[in-house]
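Board notes (copied after class):
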Amino acid sequence: MPYFNAIIGFFDGSGTSEVSTSRFYSLKGGGDKFKGQSPDAGTLKSRIMSIPTIFTDEISANKVPMARIGWITNIVQSGRSYKITYHLPSGILPIPADKIADAVGLTNPDRGIGDMQHSHWSIIEGDLFLKLLSAGLMESTKPSVFHPVLEGNRVNLVSAMMPFSGEFSGVYNAIKEASEEVGADCQRADNIWEHSTVIQDIYSLIHKSSVVVCDFSGKNPNVFYEAGIAHTLGRDVVPIVQHASDIPFDLQHHRYIKYLNNAEGLIKLKADLTSRLQTLLHR
């Protein structure tokens, strides 16, 4: 299930924010999904940093601020605050906060205090980009290379982004077998033909996936591009690589699985991937 963050009121566009620990409400609407977990450590921190975030000031009686979409890059607790650093991609333009509230279901009453009039940080269930696209709020950032996909992601779909080479057939089999171990389907773009261009099939497959496994072995530029698409869409990305030096600099702070492309190494890769996919798909 996809999620996104909403940070209301603790935002000035500087790249850093401090959110009071008492104002982290976890999952909007309640429930025990993330109960007892801290956003600055463990599995919840990893999840929060892998999903998109709405950043905006509060809406007041005489001001509707512009909201931004970005990603949290680090979270550290300091006293009674969470210190957050974040990145706002220049390609995603500002959106009026009242319009974004309507699109994602944040309350914004004419009088009184709703979600948009109250400083807090919450996690919201749903596909943020699909909601914005459906509301017509992403037209200014509409891709020119591929067409948007008006379909949410599939909970048990894993996609493999890797070089299309025979020497990687065993690697793909390991990814596929690991996916099957956790009850998921695994697909690779060269195994489907739904559109007239390969890049559209790749984009559609990433968009529909819950998890994207990216093999950076050999520093393949296509895989770098596909990983960027996956991160932009807020999909969970699992990097795998034969040599750690092949991980792009901008991604070296993410955990990755290192493997050897031989019989013993692929058995271990399958085991490592099974464990990681189990965590991501059944949390």
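Comment from the instructor: The helical segments are 42-50, 97-104, 128-134, 169-181, 198-208, 221-232, 263-281. The chain has two domains: 3-141, 157-281.
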